[in-house]
């Protein structure tokens, strides 16, 4: 096959046509033009779609009370029975007969309980605690059913018996002990502040008139309102929703426990932990009130995790971003 070269006449015609087109473009608006990109307008709360359930009008809440009742003191465990041989008539025997342990948690607390985007499995430090309890009853950590709860729903789920236990970064407080029981603490966190790098928030003194997000039903709200009375609280259903609000410019900061905030910071390089600790939070396994045998059993499981070094392995796997840590909290028993 032969190729035909363009003749000199054809090239001259093309050049002439191009010159005419340029002349028309210079004198009219006949040519297509791409508009210059516009700068985004300032974002106010409610302009961008907000996560379902987000609220910007938040009433003042009481400061969490964990000191007037020795909240972290719990029941002494007895010897752990062998798996699948729970004492007759016990809460654990009822769970064994059902064939699964029902655990309340959430899937929006990175590092503690979240859904792995690749495998789809629910994972995290709290999940490993829950699986240890299931292993103690059945000998199999997978004999478990997870029920997703918001922070505000944790106590009610225990009161109405829709879950056997709650393992969801649930702080032990005197107020909550009026309605539910707790294990000994399995983790100690410290409330801090997570802010965007351009927010100007470097600690609690910078929170006046700033929008700070927290999940409803948490002790973080009342404590922060007491420390920074002029803060403008924004509440959501989950901590993941708080991160979304920060990314959309609808919140200037988030305040809760440092371990939860570290999980949010892992997902976005433009946020950072700032300021000192605002107070300690002792996480316990929530258990329905009156189920003292279950409290003792769970405390036995937690004791075993401490003594065997499994607790430290779990910490290294999920929470090493917080540093080497100081080891598991030591239990205090009242009997």
Automatic annotation (TrEMBL):
InterPro entries linked to this entry: Bact_solute-bind_prot3, Solute-binding_3/MltF_N
Keywords: Signal, Transport
Signal sequence residues: 1-32
Solute-binding protein family 3/N-terminal domain sequence ranges: 100-322
Keyword Glycoprotein: no
SMART domains: PBPb
Coiled coil: none
Similarity comment text for this entry: Belongs to the bacterial solute-binding protein 3 family.
Protein's name according to its UniProt entry: Glutamate ABC transporter substrate-binding protein
